[in-house]
């Protein structure tokens, strides 16, 4: 099958089972550069599995995922890892910062793993932290900052490599309304300014309202609401 | 809530007299606000005039004439269109949305589709408000927040109803 024209990342007929449980049952997806797409659906509907497949973390049992004209299944594990480090960014609900490192070292980590020298990596990291309004926390460790601040540090880290696709799985799930809102504002602004595509998994309507469109996943099947209307 | 569309939907399972229609309406949707006979007959004459129902038979007995109504193809199309069109997101929609979902189940249509279409319409409004909030001052933010929280409450109801559709299907089939 051919991916939709102009799409940066797309999936066709994805199936994935965990033992007897069918997590994905023919799910479809596509996203363009600069687009924010919310993936919604009840708990256990398969939305996180869809995100993990799209990001090359989980291999589907069948179906095709195409990123920038290349099929993910045709890549080696090493190539997929390199893709995740350099072209993809990740934000999760919590527990993603390394507690032993300072905030700026955490943000610089993806650049360091890609071979950027420490000083240059931390300079870029600090500019992203300032953009996310947490520049003054650079020397603190994750245990010394609030949940909302920690999440902004995590968003800065996800953007530090200027990824082409940002995967955000319930990025505000552990935050109060005001902090959650600010994180979403900063995340979408930063992504739009770099033309990154954002795959946003959420069950919260107020978070999904920051997206350009939504797809609904239910029982492992997806429904693109823009195309359905 | 549209009484006309609800009565039309009830006729999809087969022709009924005005009295049966009122009883079915009160049982399924009336709760604390039963229909008046006058409302049923004025609604039926409007539907008749618009070609959405026909008189399927008239019974004459000791009392007044009793007309039996049947839905037409145009009537079925009209119900389909109503169910497929999302409501304008505004507070206190619950009774209309509840009616649409129950009617979709009663007429063996896809109730999930009704809920999904409505969710999408609500999200569209929420995106507009979120954008306005982002560009506005504090007063804009507070006004938009109020509307956003109300829409969010509707959406939570939509999600919960979607999760309970199987139970609701069993309940309306009784």
Task: Give keywords.
heterodimer, A: 229 residues, alpha/beta, 2 domains, 6-stranded mixed beta sheet, 8 helices, 10 strands, B: 174 residues, mainly alpha, Arc Repressor Mutant, subunit A, elongated
Describe it:
- The complex is a heterodimer of chains A (229) and B (174).
- Chain A is α/β, with parallel strands linked by helices and 229 residues long.
- Chain A has helices at residues 47-54, 77-86, 103-113, 118-131, 147-159, 177-193, 205-208, 225-228; strands at residues 9-18, 21-31, 36-40, 62-67, 70-71, 88-91, 165-169, 197-201, 213-218, 221-224.
- Chain A folds into 2 domains: 1-87 and 164-174 and 192-229, 3-Layer(aba) Sandwich (Rossmann fold), CATH 3.40.50; 95-162.
- Chain A is 35% helix and 25% strand.
- A 6-stranded mixed sheet of chain A has the order 6-7-8-3-9-10, sandwiched between helices.
- In chain A, β4 (62-67) and β5 form a beta hairpin.
- The two termini of chain A are 23 Å apart.
- The mean pLDDT of chain A is 90.
- With 174 residues, chain B is mostly helical.
- Chain B folds into 2 domains: 1-85, Orthogonal Bundle (Arc Repressor Mutant, subunit A); 87-174.
- Chain B has helices at residues 3-11, 18-30, 37-49, 73-84, 94-106, 111-135, 138-163, 165-173; strands at residues 16-17, 53-59, 66-71.
- In chain B, strands 1-3-2 form a 3-stranded antiparallel sheet.
- Classes of the chains: A alpha/beta (229), B mainly alpha (174).
- At the A-B interface, α7 and β9 of A face α6 and α7 of B.
Span from first to last CA of chain B?
23 Å
What is the SS-derived class of chain B?
Answer: mainly alpha
- In N-to-C order, the SSE pattern of chain A is EEEHEEHEHHHEHEHEEH
According to DSSP, the number of beta strands of chain A is: 10
Mean pLDDT level of chain A: 90
Instruction: Name the helix and strand elements of chain B from N-terminus to C-terminus, one letter apiece.
Output: HEHHEEHHHHH
Task: Report the CATH superfamily of the largest domain in chain A.
Answer: P-loop containing nucleotide triphosphate hydrolases
Oligomer state equals heterodimer
Number of helices of chain B: 8
Measured as a percent range, the helix fraction of chain A is 25-40%
Instruction: Report the mean per-residue pLDDT of chain B as an integer.
Output: 89
